[in-house]
Amino acid sequence: MTKSIKTAYVIWLFGGLFGLHHFYLKRDKQGFIYMITLGGFLIAFLRDVYRLPEYVREANEDKIFMEKLRLQQDQLKTPLFMTSRFISSIAVGSLFGYLAMNCLSISGNELSYHWSEILVKFLSPIIVACVVYLIGTEGPIRCSFEWPLLGSYISLFFDSIKQSTSIFNASIFAALLLNWNLKWDNDYFERVNKRKLITRIFHLGLGFAIFSGLLGLFIWNNATLEYKGEKVTISEYFEKLYNTEEMKKAREVLKMLWDFYQAHGLRRLINHFYYGYDPEAIAHAYKILELNERSTQQDIDQRCRMLSRKWHPDKYKDMEKKINAEKIFMDVQQSCNILSEHRRNRIDQNKKSEM
Questions:
Q1: How far apart (Å, rounded) are the C-alpha atoms in residues 311 and 325?
Q2: What is the rounded distance in angstroms from the CA atom of residue 261 to the CA atom of residue 267?
Q3: In principle, which of 65, 93, 203, 217 could form an S-S bond with 131, CB 3.0–4.6 Å?
Q4: Which residues pair with 149 in a beta bridge?
Q5: Residue 132 near residue 24, CB atoms below 8 Å
Q6: What is the pLDDT of residue 349?
């Protein structure tokens, strides 16, 4: 389907910060980068004001664009070095490498500290390589993912010599090796046109899930708030909250409810929760039926039948008396249900304690 320059500009205006215009033009890699960086930190979003016509011509496989591209491919063995992409890949790669490096809490005993540090050091270069690859291979150019990944891990070797860790170095090495090994992608347009929408959505969702996980872990282990006069991370705050007496009691109640549900089912659980945990409602029910805690189930049933007959609305012709009787009748019915369920729960609990 032919892409419209007007539509592209409208989408850019209202959704450009999230890369929607690039998704419209099937530039999914660039769209994803825009989405997680808010339009390339606004800079790339503004640059697209004059870049959009070229993107639309590429998406439409415009004759003039394709002739120009074929001429470049004939004259140049490899694509031209693009300074903007090179700088962008280093900047964004460093940012997300930093997120990956600090997404885990490296603390605890010596063994967990050791393994956490190893995991972080080997995870960060992969994230850097992914970002550099996405930025550097958009359009009819290609490079094997092995090269930026190799560049990222080469930086680990130099870091081990200097006994330091530099995500910036990993981004530079990854970007250098990627640009050194860029080639023309002659199957780019055919592959883009064959790509199904569900596949694009799946890849986008997977990428966003990984990004959200990294960002969430980074915030969880690094963002701080004040708790009882001291600054603690969010993870430490919830750990302290989990061990409070209130939370222990809440967990005990939840366990009791779960055990009751497994033994008696959802319906009895709802009734038990609604009737059995309201002492005021139980006391009011005894008062309505003129009974007490020593009353048996037989006493409750007899009293319910007697009061139901006495206050049944159909017995009254006068409208005022009928309305009053109806109110009392409803109170009687509710009280009967409350006390009957309350007694059943007590019997169940007694049986359980005897087992």
A1: 5
A2: 9
A3: 93
A4: none
A5: no
A6: 61
3-state secondary structure the chain: CCCCHHHHHHHHHHHHHHCHHHHHCCCHHHHHHHHHHHHHHCHHHHHHHHHHHHHHHHHCCCHHHHHHHHHHHHHCCCCCCCHHHHHHHHHHHHHHHHHHHCCCCCCCCHHHHHHHHHHHHHHHHHHHHHHHHHHHCCCCEECCCHHHHHHHHHHHHHHHHHCCCCHHHHHHHHHHHHHHCCEECCCHHHHHHHCCHHHHHHHHHHHHHHHHHHHHHHHHHHCEEEECCEEEEHHHHHHHHHCCHHHHHHHHHHHHHHHHHHHHHHHHHHHHHHHHCCHHHHHHHHHHHCCCCCCCHHHHHHHHHHHHHHCCHHHCCCHHHHHHHHHHHHHHHHHHHHHHHHHHHHHHHHHHHHC
pLDDT for 86 equals: 96
pLDDT for 350: 62
Q: What is the pLDDT of residue 110?
A: 63
What's residue 25's pLDDT? 96
- Tell me which residue has tokens 């439409």: 60
Contact 25, 3 (CB under 8 A): yes
pTM (predicted TM-score): 0.71
Q: Which domains does the chain have, with CATH numbers?
A: 1-75 (no CATH), 78-195 (no CATH), 276-354 (1.10.287.110)
Q: Give CA–CA dist 177/127, Å, rounded.
A: 16
Low-confidence ranges of the chain (pLDDT < 50): none
